[in-house]
Write a structure and sequence with these properties.
Largest sheet: 7 strands, mixed
Order of helices and strands: EEEEEEEEEEE
Strand content: over 45%
Radius of gyration: 13 Å
């Protein structure tokens, strides 16, 4: 019933850009804080960005500050992550998460930054 489906991952060159999308269904999207996490091979999953229910408040990891932008469209039940000036260290599986009383996770989309 509850689903979060990430898309938009792929292979990009250093310095390139990519936009990830996460389509939500099965719950009242506008009531949930949304976030993006990432996990590189052999590394712990880390928080990348968070956006409040109405989209007015955002927070970012220091490593992506100034390069990534999280946004949401409640009418479309979708959260986005715009990634610019990508670095090889950004290579990871990116996951979206919906948070309220209970957390929901997507299955992830792979982003590879390499020349």
């Amino acid at each position: 019933q509850v689903q979060l489906v990430e898309s938009g991952g792929g292979l990009v060159q250093p310095g390139g850009s990519l936009r990830l999308s996460c389509a939500a269904s099965g719950f009242t999207f506008s009531r949930y804080t949304m976030s993006w996490y990432r996990q590189a091979p052999g590394k712990e999953r880390e928080l990348v960005a968070v956006i409040a229910t109405a989209g007015g408040i955002t927070n970012y990891a220091d490593s992506v500050k100034g390069r990534f932008t999280i946004s949401r469209d409640n009418a479309k039940n979708t959260v986005y992550l715009q990634m610019n000036a990508l670095k090889p260290e950004d290579t990871a599986v990116y996951y979206c998460k919906a948070r309220s009383g209970m957390d929901y996770w997507g299955k992830g989309t792979l982003v590879t930054v390499s020349s």
